[in-house]
Write a structure and sequence with these properties.
single chain, about 160 residues, alpha+beta, six-stranded mixed β-sheet, about 25% helix, about 20% strand
Length: about 160
Amino acid sequence: MPVEGFMQKSFHFDYELHSTWENLAESDLQLVHLAYEAMDLAYAPYSEFKVGAAVRLSNGLTLKGNNQENIAYPSGLCAERVVLFYAGANYPTESIETICVVARGELMPSEFLLSPCGSCRQVMLETENRQAKKIRVILVNQDKRTMILHSVNDLLPFGFGK
């Protein structure tokens, strides 16, 4: 029930849901393959949950990153932040057009939606805001189902700093 003096609003977003990533457009397939390559090289001896991410920059260059765990738990870094920080440090004038995230491991059931953690969502949103251009997000579940979002803002509508 709405409280007097407050407006009630709703939030919705559009997304594409595919039964498998294998039917995506060629440019998206390339990112999925790169994300899987990165995932296979992840360092995840503690969680045994490997994550890979790949981005396409505005100049057409693709980059990849993976999660890097550390025995001192908070010292590790997620795949999404690895690739976004690498892109920002090495290609600061290029915008990120698309990011693709894949994962494998028993930390999460294969039929559950794969979604970046809160810290990664915030870094992704800041990147999108900084470049003043939307970033497409491709999330590939372990069962191959794939969700495509048209903006990071759809993952974190009330992000810090808005």
